[in-house]
Amino acid sequence: MGLFNGMNVSGSGMTAQRLRMDLISNNIANINTTRTEDGGPYRKKSPVFKAKGGQKFSIPSLDSSNTSQTGQGVEVLNIKESSKPPKLVYNPQHPDANEEGYVKMPNIDIASEMVDMVSASRAYEANVTALNTSKQMFKSALKIGK
Amino acid sequence: MYNITGDRSMSILNRALDGLQLRQQAISNNIANADTPNYKRKDVNFRSQLKMALNDNNVGLTTTQKSHFSIKPDLNKLNFNVREVNNTKIRNDRNNVDIDREMSKLAKNGLEYQAVTRMLSMKVNQLSNVINKVK
Predict the structure, then answer these.
(1) Which of A77, A101, B118, B122 could form a disulfide bond with A50, CB atoms 3.0-4.6 angstroms apart?
(2) If you compute the radius of gyration of chain B from its CA atoms, what whole number of angstroms results?
(3) How confident is the model over B58-104, as pLDDT tens digits?
(4) What percent of chain A has pLDDT over 90?
(5) CB A106, CB A44: distance < 8 Å
(6) Percent of chain A that is helix, strand, coil (3-state, to 5)
């Protein structure tokens, strides 16, 4: 089941990058959100990636179809909220302004979100390319003897 | 494995496909983990092992008489090892995947796989030619 596993690995990469993209979209959409359910302004969320499988000190097995060594893709461990303090903006007209007229705004930097967005989209494309190559390989294996 | 073609090229090509497939998995995994902190890229080296197994003089025993058994290394027992590469430059998050390199390796690996399947196909066609000519 080697090539199918390669496809699953690329699939896990695509899922992870899509989730990252969702979080970035959410961050950008909430760049002006001052109220959340937990109280206080919205805080930047980002995913924590972790490599799946592929033990570092595994004993190599005789069976090369054993895929535990090459790893089983990527998984999202959890979604972390940034602990950076909120930005204070002077805006006395704002309903959430404090006594001195300052509003706590989300700790999101739009430039770094845009950079992350491009990176996530490119990483997604790279996974798609890997998936397509696996597919081509599978097809050519099916054509042996024809 | 007894081989109908009399040579070992079929089983060698077979094992080469296994190796290429394993490498494909390693590259896919590297690409999927391009943004994972602390991840180290994985590499599969099977060419040197195949070469070693092919060189009968180095591995196995020499036969000087007809009654001697020739002990050729069993290609199916070949063990392709996956290793973690640690000695290349790493990023700040301790990840050393270079996406350009992985993508070019991916393309090369896919083409090599297609070349090997083409050769296997030709072997099978040769056989079927011979079989059909006798009919």
Answers:
(1) A77
(2) 20
(3) 445 566 776 766 556 566 666 777 888 887 777 888 889 999 999 99
(4) 68
(5) yes
(6) 40, 15, 40
Whole-angstrom Cα distance, residue A91 to residue B29? Answer: 49
A14 within 8 A of A124, measured Cβ to Cβ: yes
Check if the beta carbon of residue A98 is closer than 8 Å to that of residue A42: no
- d(CA B23, CA A55) in angstroms, rounded, equals 17
* Interface list for chain B against chain A, based on CB atoms closer than 8 Å: 17-22, 24-29, 31-37, 39, 42, 44, 77-82, 84, 99, 102-103, 106-107, 109-110, 113-114, 117-118, 120-121, 124-125
pTM: 0.81
ipTM strictly over 0.90?
Answer: no
Query: How far, in Å, CA of B81 to CA of B79, rounded?
Result: 6
